[in-house]
Amino acid sequence: MQLWIIRLFFTFTVHNKAEKLRQEQEKQTPAYFSLNPCATYDIIKIIDTLVGYDIQIGTNTNLSYIPEKMWDILEHNFRFLNISCDGATKNTYELIRRGLSYSKFIANLERLNRLAPNLKKNFDCVVMKQNIKELPLIVELASQYGVSCVKF
Predict the structure, then answer these.
(1) Is the CB of residue 119 less than 8 Å from the CB of residue 81?
(2) Which residue intervals of 27-81 are DSSP H helices?
(3) DSSP H or E stretch at residue 57
(4) Fewer CB atoms near the end CB (10 Å): N or C, the chain?
(5) Residue 1: which residues within 8 A CB-CB, separation 6 or more?
């Protein structure tokens, strides 16, 4: 019963927020809804609701895990994807992103380019002493995988 109440409240909140964002778009104000697709059980339903209100969706990710159901909808339902990338080599990436795999990151970048070539992709990079020498390599990596912007 408690779960049902929480889900009902969450669904109402999404519809309410979507309607407010749609009204902002009518005023020529860009309206974005940022969400974490990996942390939400009913993510496809939420995305469908937002798209139904013509809300532009974007999200942040480290690309370590993308739910299988998300791959097919990224290109057409998302306006942008901000991707955390703090290293251009395996050693630096895995030193900074402990527990994550550089090879998985690269494989997901390749898959993203195959399945959503027109999706706007940005790299977000935190500059620190561990990666300062790799900043030019991060820009090259971004270029190689169709990333349009690198933010340091």
Answers:
(1) yes
(2) 43-52, 68-71, 74-77
(3) strand 56-61
(4) N
(5) none
Task: Give the span between the Cα atoms of 114 and 137, in whole angstroms.
Answer: 22
Tokens coding 57? 């969706």
What are the residues facing 80 on neighbouring strands? 58, 120
CA distance 53 to 36: 19
The Cα-based distances of 58 to 2, 52, 120 in angstroms read 30, 15, 9
Query: pLDDT digit string (tens) for 64-116?
Result: 988 888 898 889 888 899 999 999 999 999 999 999 999 999 999 999 999 99
* d(C-alpha 51, C-alpha 48), whole Å: 5
